Amino acid sequence: MKHIFLFVMVVAFHLWVSCQTQNDTKRGFQSGTNAESHFQNFCLGCHNDGKSSFVERTWLWGKGRDELFKSIKYGRVAYGMPAFAEGLTDTTIYDLVDYILKMDMKPLVNTDLITVHEEGVEQSEDMKFRVDTVVDGLDVPWGLEFLPNGDLLITERKGELLRFTTHGKLQQITGLPPIIAEGQGGLLDIELHPDYAKNGWLYFSYSSPNEQNNNLANTAVMRARLKGNALVDKQRIFKAMPETNKRHHYGSKLEFDREGYLYISVGDRGNRDRNPQSLDNHCGKIHRINDDGSIPPENPFVGKKGAMPSIYSYGHRNPQGVCMHPVTGEMWSDEHGPKGGDEINIIEAAKNYGWPVISFGINYNGTTFTKDTATVGMEQPLLYWVPSIAPCGMTFVKGDRYPNWKNNILTGSLRFEYLHRVVLHGKQVVKQEKLLEGVGRVRNVEMSPDGYIYVAIENPGKILKIIPIVSH
Q: What sequence ranges are listed for the domain Cytochrome c (predicted)?
């Protein structure tokens, strides 16, 4: 009897282990994986700053084992951290916690270098180039814009506007409005008026707090002029509604088109089930306004009952790249998907880009939220990525300095730390290439007026310049 009892207990134990493994598999884990692979699969998409988010980390909600368990299991939704209770078992979560705590004990390793070939020369499939560091000592440089005299304006997400002069001096510009610099919020993009030389208007987006309740905020756009190193004549011309206490998915990119309209991207603000598909709010949309904040009468939803008249397109998740095609004048955008399903789209009036009804991605915890990747009345992306690269910033290569890259798209990869090049034939993607692999989290990419490519890297923050090497 004793042997029979032990046999039954062993069988029961193995059945329990089998059920737990199957349960993890159903919820998005592959059986047989360990904590390190779980971390790579589920955590690094967001927790990666070019080193590791868990080495020499500042812990927001404590670093005790049980505190970390609660953060993973129940999430910190207001800060964009999803709950993994549905996707992971408690045992798996504790394994992740132990792995993360071991990482926290490791010394910080400097990976602040680009892997280059001989003599500092990088080799693209179509061109050789070198990379120079133009500005360093930054934190999270978000927006880049050049003044007519060659000075570079840099927005720091933490709420600073800097001027890097042609003489190599870094100066702070004063007069910014109140900004909520928490989570993904802060001082975001910056753009000059197309006729800046005459009117002096510059535009910037930021996470703007509610005047009565500082816990609530949303994306806003202000225009101002520069008087020395101070902002004057300030006018807030756009404020997204509704405000929320969540601190993620603000967007936000700014771009003028050839007619002088200003396009503004606003993320879904963490409310995917309500905001992107409804026209009665600003979130999960790309907007089009006049340079003074008024609404163009030709906007597609002007006069539609209950619709925000500034909306140009909708069904977006978190677009952090908007740029104009230098030949066609079309507006293009990249946006973050969830776990998989990042996209590049051509933005057209009144079009619905599908989020979250259709997507090539899944939840961060491995569960699904939609089975559909296409449906009638919703646009298909020109390009999508699985797994997510976390695209940020976007520009077309213009001018003649990079002849083999002309009219290619450049976008940054936050997650995999490289610059992504997309080669087009008309509207068809014919080739893709990774540039500057290992450079760090690429937050933005911009063309200077004299035709050079500048790349913003975060944590540690710096601005790089790509210089083509011309063969004679």
A: 23-104
pLDDT digit string, tens, across residues 323-353: 999 999 999 999 999 999 999 999 999 999 9
Percentage helix, strand, coil for the chain under 3-state DSSP, each rounded to 5: 15, 35, 50
pLDDT band at 121, cuts 50/70/90?
confident
Going by C-beta distance under 8 Å and a sequence separation of 6 or more, which residues neighbour residue 265? Answer: 251, 252, 253, 285, 286, 287, 316, 319, 320, 322, 333, 335
The secondary structure element, H or E, covering residue 8 is: helix 2-26
CA-to-CA distance for 288 and 212, rounded, in angstroms? Answer: 28
Q: Provide the token pair at 183.
A: 């989570």
Q: Where are the beta strands (DSSP E) in 350-450?
A: 383-385, 391-396, 409-413, 418-425, 428-435, 441-447
| Two tokens, residue 51 | 């080193």
**Please, what is the average pLDDT of the chain?**
87
Question: Hey, what domains does the chain have and what are their CATH numbers?
Answer: 2-104 (1.10.760.10), 118-469 (2.120.10.30)
Helix (H, G, I), strand (E, B) or coil at 367: coil
Taking the model in full, what pTM does it have? 0.82
At residue 359, the 3 state secondary structure works out as coil
pLDDT tens digits, residue range 51-66?
445 544 566 667 677 7
Q: Is 3 a catalytic residue?
A: no
